[in-house]
Amino acid sequence: MSMCEPTKNEQSAINDKSSAVEAKTLPSTASAATLSTTDESGAKAFLQTAKVIISNENNSERILSRIIMDNGSQRTYVTERVVKELNLPTYDTEKLRIIAFGNKNQSKRLTEFKRVQLSLMSQYNSVQSKVIATVVPSICEDLLPTPTVDNTELNNVRMELADYKSCNERLISGINLLIGQDYYWKYNTSESKSVADNLVAVKTFFGWTVQGQHKGNKGAAYVFQVREEDAADFDISQFWNLESIGIANVKNYDEKLATENTLANITIDDGRYVVKLPWIIDCATLNNNKQVALSRLFGLNYKLRKNCEKFAEYDNAIRDLIHNNIVEKAPETAVGNPVYYMPHRPVYREHKTTTKMRIVFDASSSEPGYTSLNEHLSAGENLVADLVSTILRFRSNAIAITSDIEKAFLQISLAVCERDSHRFLWYKSLPNSQDELPEIVEFRMTRVTFGVASSPFLLAATIHKHLDVSENQYGPICYKLKKSFYVDDLVLSEQNLDMAMATYHQASKIMGEAKFTLRKWNTNDTELRKRFLNDGFQTEPNQKILGINWCTLIDNISVDVSSSIDYLQSLRGTKRNIMRAMAKIYDPIGILGPFTITIKLILQDVWKVNVGWDQALSGELSSDFQCWQDDLQLLQDFAIQRCLSTSDSKCELHIFADVSPKAYGTVAYVRRISACGTITTHFVCSKNRVSPIEKGSAKRELTLPKLELTAALIAARLSKFLIKSLDFKIASVHF
User: How far is CA 274 from the centre of its chain?
Assistant: First the structure.
């Protein structure tokens, strides 16, 4: 019998204890706070944590998750993620007033919480125990260290540790269950053993937990709370802050230094650029993360086995990377080089015309108490072109041209000394659902990888370096290309067909010299489209350009409302859903400004009445949100002309700004005068803001004169930004 397996008497006691709290909905107050600290001497404090198998009532869905046992909490809590993963039905509800650690506010309202029933099981036996837990959005990030005392100390008591992973169940991230006083003594026993000075092992239903102080490497201090989330926790002032239109990000010294070092270390080997990683934390301190990667591999295998076609597709994608020398088998040892294992997973993009499935690596994962690869790397200086500026240049001239770099990250080689930090695990052969799993093999990436924090920066830096080097040979086209790449997308416009043809040929040649193959060429011009077709490129009549819809046949652009209209119209009226609805409308140049300002005003009104995040709206607020949802239908076919200028026209920029007690904004138009005197006006872009109010009250912070000055300010900023961004001559500016 296992040391952690309960005797018959112990099991009977567990089963006889009531596993439910009263089913009635009763108002009560619950507190939950757990504290982990480190003193100045470097002694690390371990809390009572464990890894536990959690399942639904019939055991059809199971996961492994880290939990914490906290006798300072009156209730047991489970995260919404577990409820969703296991598809747990609501057991009942109760009203709680949750008082967080260090919170002196005892007058908080009672809030209704769902409760669910779930089964818990140790990794070391098959005995199940049921608990009823209160559902909360989250408990805490998985920051608490796993006990890492010397192995000899653990061997002295020959125990099965609860917080170590010893089964093949899929481990999910985070601490997802907090066992409070209502179940704490159900799972703790009176048996304990001394492991070291001030360090004790306690026998629990889940195995042995190690807690107390241990003099090892100095750790961080953690405080986490289970608490009700209300409006006081959200800094509403951020919502009203002016957007810095056309104002460059403040560049700090470290980012500039990373950029300079990266550019200096970019070399060429056999026509392909080679880069080194921009480390900001000593790579010698990087933990290898192998156990997390192995656990995630088992979880990925569990998911993919449900669909043999997708499993084969994923395996083929990895074999293809190996065949193309993008992936290689990792050496058995990595002397002197940092080692890190990246978990990976598929991302399916059904709307894509080329690759429907992409392998994404997770360089942000880490074992508890350790840092990830992404935390060790600099994201670098922002070398990517401004999004709105790129869209404006795309709209500037008569002939628009788009393309992208085929598998852009994978065209840049990683220096050999960096490759062991990009290891991953996969099977030697395709797993068969009837057979045992094949041998797990260690591979490593040889190219810049999607999912690593520094990759977009390394791509932009490499493109910039290549275009700088090529400028002596090819001239001004290199500067134009540098402004026209948004990550791997090439987006620009030209005045006439000759210039467009020249750009097409030169861009293909220049980028091809660096192994960057430009593909998916598209345009609104009929003659240029024929040339693309002759060269083997299939053009699309409808395409997304940096998130906005572009119809090439009639050359207009629009905001994508159709793809999310069903979702938006299905939302019930709550504060949380209004925030979701507002974020769902992607409109970088303000085409739908009069419509999006309405949802902002509704959100402000909701904030003033101080309702809960998921409390249903009533009365006028509910009616206003419903009207906004109904109006979505009217916007599906709304579009504007893409082109702002022609080569034979004179263009004036007209900017308007206005305010009301509720909102203020600015909008810009181009007034185009043709050679024959015909005048047309075209919308350029707009920005709007809701008038700020004092936090926690309905009192306005700014008077109308102040709002008018604020509107004039953003109009002036917009003017400066447009003059810099638009790729045609502006004869005059009018306010």
Answer: 28
Q: In what order do the strands lie in the sheet with 327-329?
A: 327-329, 440-445, 423-427
Q: What is the pLDDT of residues 212-247, one digit of tens each?
A: 876 654 444 444 444 433 433 344 444 444 344 443
Tens-place pLDDT, residues 648-657: 899 999 999 9
Question: Could you report the per-residue pLDDT of 438-478, keeping only the tens digit for each?
Answer: 899 999 999 999 999 999 999 999 999 999 999 999 999 99
pLDDT of amino acid 100: 59
Q: What are phi and psi of 203, to 5 degrees?
A: -80, 130
Two structure tokens written together for 307: 């669909």
SS3 label, residue 655: strand
Residues belonging to the chain:
735
Which has the higher per-residue pLDDT, 214 or 695? 214
Asked if residue 604 lies in contact with residue 624, where contact means CB atoms within 8 angstroms, the answer is no
Contacts of 141 (CB under 8 A, 6+ apart): 174, 175, 224
C-alpha angle 293/294/300, rounded to 5°? 85
Calpha distance 623→403 (Å, rounded):
45
Is pLDDT above 90 for 40?
A: no
List, for residues 372-381, the tens digit of each pLDDT value. 999 999 888 8
Tell me the C-alpha distance between 340 and 424, whole Å: 8
∠ at Cα 436 (432, 437), nearest 5°?
75
195 contacts: CB under 8 Å, gap ≥ 6? 149, 153, 154, 156, 157, 201, 210
Q: Within 13 Å, how many C-alpha atoms sit on residue 73's CB side?
A: 27
Q: How far is CA 215 from the centre of its chain?
A: 36
Alpha-carbon distance 453 to 279, whole Å? 11
Look at residue 222 in the predicted model and tell me its pLDDT. 44
The yes-or-no verdict on residue 625 having pLDDT over 60 is yes
Question: Residue 44 burial (CB < 10 Å; 0-12/13-18/19+)?
Answer: buried
Q: How far apart (Å, rounded) are the C-alpha atoms in residues 692 and 705?
A: 14
* Backbone angles phi and psi of 317, in degrees to 5: -65, -40
Encoding tokens for residue 151?
Answer: 């192995």
Residue 434 buriedness (CB in 10 A; 0-12 / 13-18 / 19+): exposed
- The secondary structure of residue 75, as a DSSP letter, is S
Phi, psi angle pair for 671, to nearest 5°: -100, 110
Q: Which amino acid is at 460?
A: A
- Show me where the domains of the chain are located: 8-228, 266-512, 562-734
Take residue 680 and report the two structure tokens written for it.
């047309």
The span from the CA of 46 to the CA of 292, in Å, is 20
Q: Say whether pTM exceeds 0.90.
A: no
Q: DSSP assignment, residue 236?
A: T
The DSSP secondary-structure symbol of 72 reads T
623-to-561, 571, 619 alpha-carbon distances in Å: 21, 13, 6
92 CB-contact burial (10 Å; exposed 0-12 / middle 13-18 / buried 19+)? middle
